Write the structure tokens for this entry.
Amino acid sequence: MKKPFLTLAQAQEIKRTYPTPFHIYDERGIRENARALNAAFAWNPGFKEYFAVKATPTPGILKLLREEGCGVDCSSLTELMMAQRCGFSGSEIMFSSNETPAEEFELAHRLGAYINLDDLTHVEFLRNTLGCVPDTVCCRFNPGGVFTLGDGKEGFQVMDNPGQAKYGMTRPQLAQAFTQLRELGAKRFGIHAFLASNTVSNDYYPALARILFQTAVDVTQETGCRVSFINLSGGVGVPYRPEQSPTDISAIGEGVRRAYEEIMVPNHLGDVSIFTELGRFMLAPFGHLITTAVHEKHIYKEYIGVDACAANLMRPAVYGAYHHITVLGQEDAPCDHVYDVVGSLCENCDKFAIDRPLPKIEPGSILAIHDTGAHGFSMGYNYNGKLRSSELLLREDGRIELLRRAETPEDYFATLVW
Ligand SMILES: *Cc1c(COP(=O)(O)O)cnc(C)c1O
């Protein structure tokens, strides 16, 4: 059972000030989850989570995570600027970009961020851009091939295709980059890889860690370079579907610890820090898109038209992603109706749910679309002249705080030349 963190009464009250649709985040859930992550990796003294800003680029959220000890992972100029304005600096910032423009490396360096190089040719590019290389540099590794995990029997199977991904360096390039960087003055190194997305499995991080730990041991032996951190990146998933079971972050931390003790400690790498760059895991379950049913339509199927659309949450339209829906106030009612819940874009893919059993929905019913805290608002766009919604925070004491106002038509017109 998925339970929303907002009640009908709360939603009705909020609507009086902030009309639907809006994204709302749950401070308590975010903090408790961040603490559980930090506890799961407390065995590693240098552990730090760098929240992937692209998942939820909202200062109110970034500051809250900073209070829980998190840094930020940026991948563009404006994300770096936002991190700076939120008070992050130096080793609180990871810059994991690709196809990176020179000005972005410049700003990252000025902020003292850890720069994560996506390619061997970026060594030269970085040196030419900065006139030097930083003391610490991270390199992104792509082992190629196909990454598999699990056999599908337990309800999960992870398969991703690093060999087809545009990111990272090959294994020989990784050693070459380290050697070149050291010749240019780098003293400490990080290794990063991102091999599978949204893994609802406790085995992904430990499996990835084993690959990176062994790579660290081998590259250290080959090059003599000193590895100071391993960045496990993102990819720990969340159960979007009610029948899926959530990942267990303490089991994940324990699995990584075992790999660390087997591979790193005996090879004199027992002082290497573990970093993560989680986005989805940190925020997705702690956000709802709240929307009001506006129309019901009875043709070949039953449609419920809501005031949100794919421009507020594109995952269902683009990936066919499942997002659970609760009709607020009907949490325990039988799901004895079958609906397509649709937005108003002139695109037939603008459907939040297809053939979804739900309780009876009337115009005026308020719906909570679940797990929209990451890659939700942030992937929004203005197609069909749709305006971005507000973002709100449900404080631990029940207060509602505005994190971002809704766009107005004037915002939409602001960049136009008439
Ligand atoms: C998107 C991204 C992440 C976060 O991924 P999640 O699946 O949201 O955890 C982390 N690192 C990099 C480099 C990314 O591009």
